[in-house]
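Progress report, Aim 2. The chain analyzed during this reporting quarter is listed below.
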Amino acid sequence: MTRTIAQIEEWLESGTRAADPLDHAGELVKAGEEVLENWIVAHGGTPTEETRENFRLLALHRQGARGDPSFNACRETCREIAYHYNLVKLEAAEDRGQDTVAMMRLVTKHLVLFIGGKLKEAGLGDFCCSSRSLRSKPDRKVDYLGV
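Predicted structure tokens for the chain:
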């Protein structure tokens, strides 16, 4: 079952994580997929099960970007999540994945804030998840699938 954006944001803020860096990296990729699923469902679509470059995350981004050029602003964020996942896979054998997972977690949070913000405020994607209009309003938790 797909978590809402608010649930994913709460999970990221809680610091809950798998002990193994590779397992946690997988959790972060899944969180990214769920955020994109929220976007697609909110726009009347059915999230794809396809992959692109071995990542469903990238296929979901491609699907979500159809018809909304401003959504391409998070393309590199999705690619960076995939990149960090691959780095963690390489580093896990040498027990060096913790720093990479920490960065991956920050990038995943950026994706959550961007898409949550775009869903909440039309046109936000023309700027960034740090847009002042979003940050200046209280009670900005986003909850879409549960509606």
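The longest helix spans residues 98-120. The mean pLDDT is 84. These observations will guide the mutagenesis work planned for the next reporting period.
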